[in-house]
Amino acid sequence: MQLAFHAETLRRERCAPVRGINPLLDNYLESVSAQLANHPGAWVHRHARFCPQCLQASGYWQFGWELLFADACPIHGIWLIDACSSCGQALTWRRARLLRCDCGRTFAGHAAVACPPAVSHLSRVVTEKLLGETSSHALGTTDGLDVEQLQRLIRFLGCYTDTDPGPRPQKIVNLDRLSVSWRLVSLAAEVIEQWPTSLHAVLDRMQRERATDGGGRLGGRFGYFYTALYRGFPEPEFAPLRDAFENYVAEHWRGALGHRNRRLPAGILQRAAWIPANHACDQLGISRRRLTQLIGANKIAGETRVGLTGRTFIVVRREDVARQLLQIEQEVDLFEAARMLGLTKRRMQSLVVRLFPEAYRPESAGTPWTIPRGRLDALVGIADQLNSAETIEDGAVAFGHVLQFWPWTDATVADALAAVIARTLVPVAALRGISGVPALIFREEDLRVWHAGTHPLATGLLTVPQVADRIGIKQEVAYALVRSGLLSSQAIDHGKKRDVAWVSPAELEAFGRRYRFARDLAGSMGCSPRWLIDGLGLLGVRPISGPHIDGCRQVVYESTHALRQMVVKLRAFRRNRR
Predict the structure, then answer these.
(1) What value does the mean pLDDT take over residues 411-429?
(2) pTM to 2 decimals?
Protein backbone atom coordinates (compact mmCIF):
# COMPACT_ATOMS: atom_id res chain seq x y z
CA MET A 1 0.00 0.00 0.00
CA GLN A 2 1.24 3.48 -0.91
CA LEU A 3 0.60 6.13 1.75
CA ALA A 4 0.25 9.74 0.63
CA PHE A 5 1.30 12.65 2.84
CA HIS A 6 -2.17 13.99 3.57
CA ALA A 7 -3.13 15.15 7.05
CA GLU A 8 -6.48 13.35 7.24
CA THR A 9 -5.08 10.19 5.64
CA LEU A 10 -2.19 10.10 8.11
CA ARG A 11 -4.61 10.47 11.04
CA ARG A 12 -6.93 7.79 9.66
CA GLU A 13 -4.04 5.34 9.28
CA ARG A 14 -2.84 6.25 12.80
CA CYS A 15 0.41 7.75 11.46
CA ALA A 16 -0.44 11.06 13.13
CA PRO A 17 -2.18 11.95 16.40
CA VAL A 18 -5.82 13.00 16.51
CA ARG A 19 -6.47 16.66 15.74
CA GLY A 20 -6.31 18.91 18.77
CA ILE A 21 -3.76 16.99 20.83
CA ASN A 22 -0.79 18.94 19.39
CA PRO A 23 -1.84 22.22 17.66
CA LEU A 24 1.70 22.94 16.40
CA LEU A 25 1.88 19.51 14.77
CA ASP A 26 -1.60 20.00 13.32
CA ASN A 27 -0.49 23.27 11.67
CA TYR A 28 2.64 21.59 10.33
CA LEU A 29 0.70 18.69 8.81
CA GLU A 30 -1.87 20.98 7.22
CA SER A 31 0.83 23.24 5.74
CA VAL A 32 2.86 20.40 4.23
CA SER A 33 -0.30 18.71 2.90
CA ALA A 34 -1.43 21.93 1.23
CA GLN A 35 1.98 22.52 -0.35
CA LEU A 36 2.08 18.97 -1.72
CA ALA A 37 -1.35 19.44 -3.27
CA ASN A 38 -0.82 22.99 -4.54
CA HIS A 39 2.79 22.68 -5.75
CA PRO A 40 3.39 19.08 -6.87
CA GLY A 41 6.22 20.23 -9.15
CA ALA A 42 8.13 21.64 -6.20
CA TRP A 43 9.07 18.17 -4.97
CA VAL A 44 11.50 15.43 -5.95
CA HIS A 45 9.27 12.37 -6.37
CA ARG A 46 11.44 9.67 -7.94
CA HIS A 47 14.43 9.78 -5.61
CA ALA A 48 15.12 10.29 -1.92
CA ARG A 49 17.77 12.60 -0.46
CA PHE A 50 19.21 13.05 2.99
CA CYS A 51 21.72 14.85 5.21
CA PRO A 52 23.92 12.29 7.05
CA GLN A 53 24.69 14.69 9.91
CA CYS A 54 21.00 15.39 10.55
CA LEU A 55 20.33 11.63 10.67
CA GLN A 56 23.18 11.19 13.13
CA ALA A 57 21.77 13.93 15.36
CA SER A 58 18.05 13.10 15.31
CA GLY A 59 17.32 9.98 13.30
CA TYR A 60 14.34 11.68 11.64
CA TRP A 61 13.77 12.04 7.91
CA GLN A 62 13.03 15.66 7.04
CA PHE A 63 10.51 16.72 4.40
CA GLY A 64 12.69 19.69 3.30
CA TRP A 65 15.21 17.29 1.77
CA GLU A 66 12.69 16.38 -0.92
CA LEU A 67 12.26 19.93 -2.23
CA LEU A 68 13.52 20.57 -5.75
CA PHE A 69 16.64 22.80 -5.76
CA ALA A 70 17.02 22.55 -1.95
CA ASP A 71 20.21 20.62 -2.60
CA ALA A 72 22.01 21.35 0.67
CA CYS A 73 21.37 21.13 4.39
CA PRO A 74 20.90 24.69 5.67
CA ILE A 75 21.80 23.57 9.21
CA HIS A 76 25.14 21.85 8.56
CA GLY A 77 26.12 23.51 5.26
CA ILE A 78 26.74 20.24 3.39
CA TRP A 79 25.45 18.74 0.18
CA LEU A 80 22.52 16.32 0.42
CA ILE A 81 23.06 12.76 -0.80
CA ASP A 82 20.74 10.82 -3.14
CA ALA A 83 22.86 7.71 -3.88
CA CYS A 84 24.42 5.08 -1.64
CA SER A 85 28.18 5.44 -1.35
CA SER A 86 28.58 1.66 -1.03
CA CYS A 87 26.51 0.22 -3.87
CA GLY A 88 26.15 3.40 -5.92
CA GLN A 89 22.43 2.92 -6.39
CA ALA A 90 20.11 5.92 -6.47
CA LEU A 91 17.83 6.04 -3.46
CA THR A 92 14.16 5.38 -4.13
CA TRP A 93 11.11 5.14 -1.92
CA ARG A 94 10.85 1.39 -2.73
CA ARG A 95 13.72 0.50 -0.36
CA ALA A 96 12.87 -1.80 2.55
CA ARG A 97 13.94 0.50 5.39
CA LEU A 98 13.79 4.25 5.75
CA LEU A 99 17.23 4.90 7.23
CA ARG A 100 19.20 2.15 5.51
CA CYS A 101 20.01 1.21 1.91
CA ASP A 102 18.97 -2.16 0.59
CA CYS A 103 22.66 -3.07 0.48
CA GLY A 104 22.72 -2.67 4.27
CA ARG A 105 24.64 0.62 4.51
CA THR A 106 23.17 3.11 7.01
CA PHE A 107 22.63 6.60 5.67
CA ALA A 108 23.87 8.24 8.87
CA GLY A 109 27.32 6.81 8.22
CA HIS A 110 27.86 8.49 4.86
CA ALA A 111 30.64 11.07 4.54
CA ALA A 112 29.58 14.73 4.44
CA VAL A 113 30.79 17.14 1.73
CA ALA A 114 30.71 20.89 2.42
CA CYS A 115 28.79 23.09 -0.02
CA PRO A 116 29.18 26.81 -0.81
CA PRO A 117 27.49 29.06 1.78
CA ALA A 118 25.27 30.57 -0.92
CA VAL A 119 23.82 27.12 -1.71
CA SER A 120 22.91 26.31 1.90
CA HIS A 121 21.49 29.81 2.27
CA LEU A 122 19.30 29.32 -0.79
CA SER A 123 18.15 25.90 0.47
CA ARG A 124 17.02 27.50 3.72
CA VAL A 125 15.02 30.14 1.81
CA VAL A 126 13.35 27.47 -0.39
CA THR A 127 12.36 25.41 2.66
CA GLU A 128 10.92 28.39 4.49
CA LYS A 129 9.01 29.46 1.37
CA LEU A 130 7.35 26.05 1.36
CA LEU A 131 5.98 26.60 4.84
CA GLY A 132 4.96 30.16 4.04
CA GLU A 133 7.33 31.54 6.63
CA THR A 134 8.80 35.03 6.47
CA SER A 135 12.50 34.40 6.70
CA SER A 136 15.07 36.80 8.02
CA HIS A 137 17.48 35.04 5.67
CA ALA A 138 15.50 35.85 2.50
CA LEU A 139 17.23 37.98 -0.09
CA GLY A 140 15.71 41.07 -1.64
CA THR A 141 15.12 39.46 -5.01
CA THR A 142 13.19 36.55 -3.39
CA ASP A 143 10.81 38.67 -1.34
CA GLY A 144 7.19 38.06 -2.26
CA LEU A 145 7.86 34.86 -4.21
CA ASP A 146 6.17 31.59 -3.30
CA VAL A 147 8.06 28.33 -3.48
CA GLU A 148 7.02 27.58 -7.07
CA GLN A 149 8.05 31.04 -8.27
CA LEU A 150 11.38 30.82 -6.47
CA GLN A 151 12.11 27.47 -8.09
CA ARG A 152 11.30 28.94 -11.51
CA LEU A 153 13.74 31.76 -10.78
CA ILE A 154 16.47 29.29 -9.73
CA ARG A 155 15.98 27.21 -12.88
CA PHE A 156 16.10 30.33 -15.07
CA LEU A 157 19.19 31.87 -13.48
CA GLY A 158 21.07 28.58 -13.20
CA CYS A 159 20.42 27.63 -16.82
CA TYR A 160 21.19 30.97 -18.43
CA THR A 161 24.22 31.89 -16.34
CA ASP A 162 25.98 28.72 -17.47
CA THR A 163 28.83 29.45 -19.87
CA ASP A 164 27.46 26.80 -22.26
CA PRO A 165 23.69 26.78 -21.82
CA GLY A 166 22.91 25.01 -25.10
CA PRO A 167 20.06 25.70 -27.52
CA ARG A 168 17.25 24.89 -24.98
CA PRO A 169 18.77 25.74 -21.63
CA GLN A 170 15.76 25.01 -19.40
CA LYS A 171 15.05 21.58 -20.90
CA ILE A 172 17.20 19.42 -18.60
CA VAL A 173 16.98 15.66 -18.21
CA ASN A 174 17.13 14.15 -14.67
CA LEU A 175 17.01 17.55 -13.01
CA ASP A 176 15.84 15.81 -9.82
CA ARG A 177 19.26 14.12 -9.46
CA LEU A 178 21.86 15.96 -7.41
CA SER A 179 24.57 15.06 -9.91
CA VAL A 180 22.67 17.19 -12.44
CA SER A 181 21.11 19.96 -10.36
CA TRP A 182 24.14 20.88 -8.21
CA ARG A 183 25.73 22.97 -10.97
CA LEU A 184 22.52 24.80 -11.78
CA VAL A 185 21.77 25.51 -8.11
CA SER A 186 25.34 26.66 -7.45
CA LEU A 187 25.21 29.19 -10.28
CA ALA A 188 21.77 30.48 -9.31
CA ALA A 189 22.73 30.72 -5.62
CA GLU A 190 25.77 32.88 -6.39
CA VAL A 191 23.69 35.22 -8.56
CA ILE A 192 20.93 35.57 -5.95
CA GLU A 193 23.40 35.96 -3.07
CA GLN A 194 25.23 38.85 -4.76
CA TRP A 195 22.23 40.48 -6.41
CA PRO A 196 22.39 42.33 -8.78
CA THR A 197 26.20 42.52 -9.14
CA SER A 198 26.57 38.89 -10.19
CA LEU A 199 23.72 39.17 -12.68
CA HIS A 200 25.34 42.20 -14.28
CA ALA A 201 28.62 40.28 -14.54
CA VAL A 202 26.78 37.48 -16.36
CA LEU A 203 25.18 39.98 -18.72
CA ASP A 204 28.60 41.52 -19.38
CA ARG A 205 29.89 38.10 -20.39
CA MET A 206 26.92 37.56 -22.71
CA GLN A 207 27.61 40.90 -24.40
CA ARG A 208 31.29 40.08 -24.93
CA GLU A 209 30.71 36.57 -26.21
CA ARG A 210 28.15 37.73 -28.78
CA ALA A 211 29.92 40.96 -29.72
CA THR A 212 30.66 39.78 -33.28
CA ASP A 213 27.65 37.63 -34.14
CA GLY A 214 24.95 39.02 -31.86
CA GLY A 215 24.43 42.29 -33.70
CA GLY A 216 23.06 45.37 -32.04
CA ARG A 217 19.76 43.92 -30.81
CA LEU A 218 19.03 42.90 -27.25
CA GLY A 219 17.80 39.53 -28.44
CA GLY A 220 20.95 39.03 -30.50
CA ARG A 221 23.29 39.71 -27.58
CA PHE A 222 21.37 38.05 -24.74
CA GLY A 223 19.72 35.26 -26.71
CA TYR A 224 16.88 33.36 -25.08
CA PHE A 225 17.69 34.94 -21.71
CA TYR A 226 16.06 38.14 -22.95
CA THR A 227 13.08 36.33 -24.48
CA ALA A 228 12.47 34.03 -21.51
CA LEU A 229 12.80 36.92 -19.05
CA TYR A 230 9.77 38.76 -20.43
CA ARG A 231 7.74 35.76 -21.56
CA GLY A 232 8.23 33.57 -18.51
CA PHE A 233 8.18 36.11 -15.67
CA PRO A 234 5.32 38.56 -16.27
CA GLU A 235 4.03 38.48 -12.66
CA PRO A 236 4.54 41.60 -10.52
CA GLU A 237 6.48 39.49 -7.97
CA PHE A 238 9.32 39.28 -10.51
CA ALA A 239 9.68 43.05 -10.82
CA PRO A 240 13.15 42.97 -9.10
CA LEU A 241 14.36 40.56 -11.80
CA ARG A 242 13.12 42.76 -14.65
CA ASP A 243 14.36 45.91 -12.92
CA ALA A 244 17.86 44.46 -12.56
CA PHE A 245 18.02 43.67 -16.28
CA GLU A 246 16.59 47.05 -17.30
CA ASN A 247 19.00 48.90 -15.02
CA TYR A 248 21.86 47.01 -16.65
CA VAL A 249 20.60 47.92 -20.11
CA ALA A 250 20.23 51.56 -19.10
CA GLU A 251 23.80 51.74 -17.78
CA HIS A 252 25.80 49.40 -20.02
CA TRP A 253 23.97 48.61 -23.27
CA ARG A 254 25.65 50.04 -26.36
CA GLY A 255 23.50 48.56 -29.07
CA ALA A 256 20.31 49.72 -30.74
CA LEU A 257 17.52 50.70 -28.38
CA GLY A 258 14.42 52.27 -29.85
CA HIS A 259 10.85 53.16 -29.04
CA ARG A 260 9.67 50.14 -31.01
CA ASN A 261 10.88 47.80 -28.27
CA ARG A 262 7.61 47.01 -26.49
CA ARG A 263 9.09 44.87 -23.74
CA LEU A 264 11.24 47.53 -22.13
CA PRO A 265 9.51 50.38 -20.29
CA ALA A 266 9.24 53.66 -22.18
CA GLY A 267 11.36 55.49 -19.62
CA ILE A 268 14.45 53.36 -20.19
CA LEU A 269 15.54 55.59 -23.08
CA GLN A 270 15.73 58.43 -20.57
CA ARG A 271 18.13 56.34 -18.45
CA ALA A 272 20.17 54.48 -21.05
CA ALA A 273 23.90 55.18 -20.84
CA TRP A 274 24.24 54.75 -24.63
CA ILE A 275 21.54 55.95 -27.00
CA PRO A 276 21.09 55.80 -30.78
CA ALA A 277 22.43 58.70 -32.81
CA ASN A 278 19.01 59.71 -34.12
CA HIS A 279 17.72 60.08 -30.55
CA ALA A 280 20.75 62.21 -29.70
CA CYS A 281 20.06 64.44 -32.71
CA ASP A 282 16.45 64.88 -31.57
CA GLN A 283 17.54 65.82 -28.06
CA LEU A 284 20.18 68.28 -29.23
CA GLY A 285 18.14 69.68 -32.10
CA ILE A 286 21.04 69.23 -34.52
CA SER A 287 21.61 67.43 -37.80
CA ARG A 288 23.28 64.05 -38.16
CA ARG A 289 26.19 65.80 -39.86
CA ARG A 290 26.67 68.09 -36.88
CA LEU A 291 26.57 65.11 -34.48
CA THR A 292 29.26 63.39 -36.53
CA GLN A 293 31.40 66.52 -36.21
CA LEU A 294 30.96 66.54 -32.43
CA ILE A 295 31.99 62.88 -32.29
CA GLY A 296 35.04 63.60 -34.45
CA ALA A 297 35.98 66.51 -32.17
CA ASN A 298 35.79 64.15 -29.13
CA LYS A 299 33.02 66.24 -27.58
CA ILE A 300 30.64 63.25 -27.65
CA ALA A 301 31.75 59.64 -27.34
CA GLY A 302 30.33 57.54 -30.15
CA GLU A 303 30.74 53.99 -31.40
CA THR A 304 29.72 52.33 -34.64
CA ARG A 305 27.88 48.99 -34.44
CA VAL A 306 27.10 46.49 -37.17
CA GLY A 307 23.86 44.52 -37.02
CA LEU A 308 23.25 40.96 -38.15
CA THR A 309 22.07 42.22 -41.54
CA GLY A 310 25.19 44.33 -42.01
CA ARG A 311 23.43 47.61 -41.25
CA THR A 312 25.64 50.02 -39.36
CA PHE A 313 24.40 52.37 -36.67
CA ILE A 314 25.98 54.78 -34.23
CA VAL A 315 25.40 54.95 -30.49
CA VAL A 316 26.60 57.82 -28.31
CA ARG A 317 27.14 58.27 -24.59
CA ARG A 318 24.14 59.84 -22.87
CA GLU A 319 26.15 61.86 -20.36
CA ASP A 320 28.11 63.47 -23.20
CA VAL A 321 24.84 64.35 -24.94
CA ALA A 322 23.47 65.86 -21.72
CA ARG A 323 26.65 67.91 -21.25
CA GLN A 324 26.52 69.09 -24.86
CA LEU A 325 22.84 69.95 -24.44
CA LEU A 326 23.72 72.27 -21.56
CA GLN A 327 26.25 73.97 -23.77
CA ILE A 328 23.80 74.24 -26.67
CA GLU A 329 21.22 75.79 -24.36
CA GLN A 330 23.78 78.53 -23.71
CA GLU A 331 24.27 79.11 -27.45
CA VAL A 332 22.16 80.33 -30.34
CA ASP A 333 22.60 80.33 -34.08
CA LEU A 334 22.84 83.36 -36.32
CA PHE A 335 19.12 83.45 -37.11
CA GLU A 336 18.07 83.39 -33.45
CA ALA A 337 20.63 86.05 -32.53
CA ALA A 338 19.34 88.28 -35.33
CA ARG A 339 15.77 87.79 -34.09
CA MET A 340 16.71 88.60 -30.50
CA LEU A 341 18.52 91.79 -31.55
CA GLY A 342 15.88 92.86 -34.08
CA LEU A 343 18.37 92.82 -36.97
CA THR A 344 18.27 91.28 -40.39
CA LYS A 345 20.20 88.12 -41.06
CA ARG A 346 22.45 89.98 -43.46
CA ARG A 347 23.24 92.68 -40.91
CA MET A 348 23.83 90.08 -38.22
CA GLN A 349 26.24 88.18 -40.42
CA SER A 350 28.31 91.29 -40.94
CA LEU A 351 28.46 92.07 -37.21
CA VAL A 352 28.95 88.63 -35.67
CA VAL A 353 32.75 88.36 -35.80
CA ARG A 354 33.43 91.79 -34.33
CA LEU A 355 30.52 91.97 -31.88
CA PHE A 356 30.81 88.39 -30.59
CA PRO A 357 34.48 87.36 -30.70
CA GLU A 358 33.65 84.12 -28.86
CA ALA A 359 31.33 82.97 -31.66
CA TYR A 360 32.57 80.04 -33.74
CA ARG A 361 31.71 77.88 -36.69
CA PRO A 362 32.37 74.13 -36.91
CA GLU A 363 35.27 73.02 -39.04
CA SER A 364 33.24 72.11 -42.11
CA ALA A 365 32.18 74.80 -44.53
CA GLY A 366 28.57 75.81 -44.86
CA THR A 367 27.61 75.26 -41.23
CA PRO A 368 25.92 78.11 -39.33
CA TRP A 369 27.48 80.31 -36.70
CA THR A 370 27.21 79.34 -33.05
CA ILE A 371 27.00 82.31 -30.69
CA PRO A 372 27.32 81.98 -26.87
CA ARG A 373 24.51 83.74 -25.08
CA GLY A 374 26.60 85.71 -22.55
CA ARG A 375 27.15 89.01 -24.40
CA LEU A 376 23.97 88.51 -26.42
CA ASP A 377 21.78 88.25 -23.31
CA ALA A 378 23.57 91.23 -21.78
CA LEU A 379 22.72 93.38 -24.81
CA VAL A 380 19.09 92.22 -24.90
CA GLY A 381 18.83 92.77 -21.15
CA ILE A 382 19.93 96.38 -21.47
CA ALA A 383 17.21 97.05 -24.02
CA ASP A 384 14.58 95.34 -21.85
CA GLN A 385 15.49 97.39 -18.76
CA LEU A 386 15.12 100.79 -20.43
CA ASN A 387 12.05 102.98 -20.04
CA SER A 388 9.89 102.96 -23.16
CA ALA A 389 9.16 106.13 -25.10
CA GLU A 390 6.33 106.88 -27.51
CA THR A 391 8.33 109.39 -29.54
CA ILE A 392 11.89 110.52 -30.01
CA GLU A 393 12.64 113.88 -28.45
CA ASP A 394 14.62 116.59 -30.19
CA GLY A 395 18.32 115.94 -29.94
CA ALA A 396 17.80 112.18 -29.68
CA VAL A 397 17.98 109.44 -32.29
CA ALA A 398 16.91 105.78 -32.47
CA PHE A 399 19.59 103.26 -33.31
CA GLY A 400 17.39 101.91 -36.09
CA HIS A 401 17.68 105.34 -37.73
CA VAL A 402 21.45 105.18 -37.32
CA LEU A 403 21.54 101.77 -39.00
CA GLN A 404 19.58 103.12 -41.95
CA PHE A 405 20.90 106.59 -42.56
CA TRP A 406 24.14 107.27 -40.77
CA PRO A 407 27.33 106.60 -42.73
CA TRP A 408 28.60 104.03 -40.23
CA THR A 409 30.39 100.92 -41.38
CA ASP A 410 29.48 97.52 -40.02
CA ALA A 411 32.59 97.62 -37.86
CA THR A 412 31.45 100.92 -36.36
CA VAL A 413 27.99 99.54 -35.64
CA ALA A 414 29.50 96.47 -33.96
CA ASP A 415 31.80 98.64 -31.86
CA ALA A 416 28.89 100.86 -30.82
CA LEU A 417 26.87 97.84 -29.62
CA ALA A 418 29.95 96.52 -27.81
CA ALA A 419 30.25 99.90 -26.09
CA VAL A 420 26.60 99.57 -25.00
CA ILE A 421 27.42 96.19 -23.43
CA ALA A 422 30.46 97.73 -21.71
CA ARG A 423 28.27 100.66 -20.51
CA THR A 424 30.58 103.21 -22.11
CA LEU A 425 27.76 104.22 -24.46
CA VAL A 426 24.47 104.48 -22.59
CA PRO A 427 21.03 104.64 -24.26
CA VAL A 428 18.41 106.81 -22.59
CA ALA A 429 15.23 104.93 -23.55
CA ALA A 430 13.71 102.37 -25.91
CA LEU A 431 11.22 103.21 -28.64
CA ARG A 432 7.90 101.49 -27.97
CA GLY A 433 6.64 99.08 -30.62
CA ILE A 434 10.11 98.14 -31.89
CA SER A 435 12.12 95.18 -30.62
CA GLY A 436 15.85 94.73 -30.24
CA VAL A 437 18.66 97.22 -30.67
CA PRO A 438 16.91 99.38 -33.34
CA ALA A 439 14.63 100.57 -30.50
CA LEU A 440 17.53 101.97 -28.45
CA ILE A 441 17.33 105.76 -28.16
CA PHE A 442 20.55 107.73 -27.65
CA ARG A 443 21.33 111.36 -27.30
CA GLU A 444 22.65 112.27 -30.71
CA GLU A 445 25.51 114.22 -29.17
CA ASP A 446 26.62 111.12 -27.22
CA LEU A 447 26.80 109.06 -30.40
CA ARG A 448 28.77 111.70 -32.27
CA VAL A 449 31.23 112.23 -29.41
CA TRP A 450 31.73 108.47 -29.10
CA HIS A 451 32.18 108.09 -32.85
CA ALA A 452 34.62 111.00 -33.11
CA GLY A 453 36.76 109.48 -30.38
CA THR A 454 36.84 105.97 -31.77
CA HIS A 455 36.36 106.10 -35.55
CA PRO A 456 37.32 108.52 -38.32
CA LEU A 457 34.41 110.24 -40.04
CA ALA A 458 33.27 108.40 -43.11
CA THR A 459 33.42 110.63 -46.21
CA GLY A 460 33.03 108.17 -49.08
CA LEU A 461 30.26 108.83 -51.61
CA LEU A 462 27.51 106.27 -52.18
CA THR A 463 25.87 105.22 -55.39
CA VAL A 464 22.08 105.16 -55.57
CA PRO A 465 21.99 101.31 -55.42
CA GLN A 466 24.21 101.50 -52.32
CA VAL A 467 21.81 103.99 -50.78
CA ALA A 468 18.87 101.69 -51.52
CA ASP A 469 20.70 98.79 -49.88
CA ARG A 470 21.65 100.84 -46.82
CA ILE A 471 18.14 102.15 -46.02
CA GLY A 472 16.33 98.97 -47.13
CA ILE A 473 14.36 100.15 -50.15
CA LYS A 474 14.20 99.11 -53.77
CA GLN A 475 16.56 100.83 -56.20
CA GLU A 476 13.67 102.33 -58.18
CA VAL A 477 12.42 104.02 -54.98
CA ALA A 478 15.91 105.43 -54.32
CA TYR A 479 16.08 106.79 -57.89
CA ALA A 480 12.59 108.32 -57.47
CA LEU A 481 13.73 110.09 -54.28
CA VAL A 482 16.77 111.46 -56.13
CA ARG A 483 14.63 112.64 -59.06
CA SER A 484 12.14 114.37 -56.75
CA GLY A 485 14.95 116.17 -54.93
CA LEU A 486 14.07 114.70 -51.53
CA LEU A 487 17.45 112.97 -51.56
CA SER A 488 20.16 115.34 -52.78
CA SER A 489 22.84 113.93 -55.05
CA GLN A 490 25.66 115.12 -57.24
CA ALA A 491 26.49 114.00 -60.75
CA ILE A 492 30.07 113.07 -61.58
CA ASP A 493 31.28 112.66 -65.13
CA HIS A 494 33.07 109.32 -65.60
CA GLY A 495 33.43 109.64 -69.33
CA LYS A 496 30.39 107.52 -69.99
CA LYS A 497 27.20 108.32 -71.82
CA ARG A 498 25.47 109.20 -68.60
CA ASP A 499 26.74 110.84 -65.49
CA VAL A 500 26.57 108.76 -62.31
CA ALA A 501 24.56 110.14 -59.39
CA TRP A 502 26.37 110.02 -56.06
CA VAL A 503 24.97 110.66 -52.60
CA SER A 504 27.16 111.87 -49.79
CA PRO A 505 26.80 110.33 -46.32
CA ALA A 506 25.86 113.75 -44.98
CA GLU A 507 22.97 114.06 -47.46
CA LEU A 508 21.78 110.57 -46.62
CA GLU A 509 21.86 111.43 -42.93
CA ALA A 510 19.97 114.66 -43.57
CA PHE A 511 17.30 112.73 -45.48
CA GLY A 512 16.90 110.38 -42.53
CA ARG A 513 16.39 113.24 -40.11
CA ARG A 514 13.90 115.11 -42.32
CA TYR A 515 11.67 112.38 -43.75
CA ARG A 516 9.95 109.18 -42.58
CA PHE A 517 8.69 106.26 -44.67
CA ALA A 518 5.09 105.22 -44.00
CA ARG A 519 6.21 101.58 -43.79
CA ASP A 520 8.63 102.44 -40.92
CA LEU A 521 5.97 104.34 -39.00
CA ALA A 522 3.52 101.47 -39.49
CA GLY A 523 6.10 98.94 -38.38
CA SER A 524 6.69 100.81 -35.13
CA MET A 525 2.93 100.77 -34.45
CA GLY A 526 2.28 97.18 -35.48
CA CYS A 527 -0.26 98.13 -38.13
CA SER A 528 -0.43 98.08 -41.91
CA PRO A 529 0.89 101.06 -43.94
CA ARG A 530 -2.58 101.51 -45.51
CA TRP A 531 -4.23 101.86 -42.07
CA LEU A 532 -1.61 104.39 -41.03
CA ILE A 533 -1.93 106.44 -44.23
CA ASP A 534 -5.73 106.53 -43.96
CA GLY A 535 -5.57 107.44 -40.28
CA LEU A 536 -3.10 110.29 -40.83
CA GLY A 537 -5.23 111.53 -43.73
CA LEU A 538 -8.26 111.76 -41.46
CA LEU A 539 -6.12 113.77 -39.03
CA GLY A 540 -5.04 116.16 -41.80
CA VAL A 541 -1.49 114.92 -42.31
CA ARG A 542 -0.59 114.35 -45.98
CA PRO A 543 2.49 112.66 -47.45
CA ILE A 544 4.89 114.62 -49.63
CA SER A 545 5.77 111.71 -51.88
CA GLY A 546 4.04 108.55 -52.99
CA PRO A 547 2.45 106.62 -55.88
CA HIS A 548 -0.32 109.19 -56.34
CA ILE A 549 1.91 112.24 -55.87
CA ASP A 550 5.13 111.83 -57.84
CA GLY A 551 5.10 108.16 -58.78
CA CYS A 552 7.40 107.05 -55.95
CA ARG A 553 6.44 103.55 -54.84
CA GLN A 554 7.00 104.38 -51.16
CA VAL A 555 4.88 106.87 -49.22
CA VAL A 556 7.08 109.47 -47.54
CA TYR A 557 6.14 111.96 -44.81
CA GLU A 558 8.05 114.98 -43.63
CA SER A 559 9.22 114.43 -40.07
CA THR A 560 7.47 117.38 -38.41
CA HIS A 561 6.16 117.96 -34.93
CA ALA A 562 2.61 117.61 -36.26
CA LEU A 563 3.41 114.18 -37.71
CA ARG A 564 4.82 112.98 -34.39
CA GLN A 565 1.76 114.21 -32.52
CA MET A 566 -0.66 112.50 -34.91
CA VAL A 567 1.33 109.22 -34.73
CA VAL A 568 1.03 109.31 -30.92
CA LYS A 569 -2.75 109.80 -31.23
CA LEU A 570 -3.09 106.91 -33.65
CA ARG A 571 -1.02 104.67 -31.41
CA ALA A 572 -3.21 105.53 -28.42
CA PHE A 573 -6.36 104.95 -30.48
CA ARG A 574 -5.11 101.57 -31.62
CA ARG A 575 -4.10 100.55 -28.09
CA ASN A 576 -7.53 101.52 -26.67
CA ARG A 577 -9.35 99.47 -29.31
CA ARG A 578 -7.58 96.37 -28.05
Answers:
(1) 92
(2) 0.51
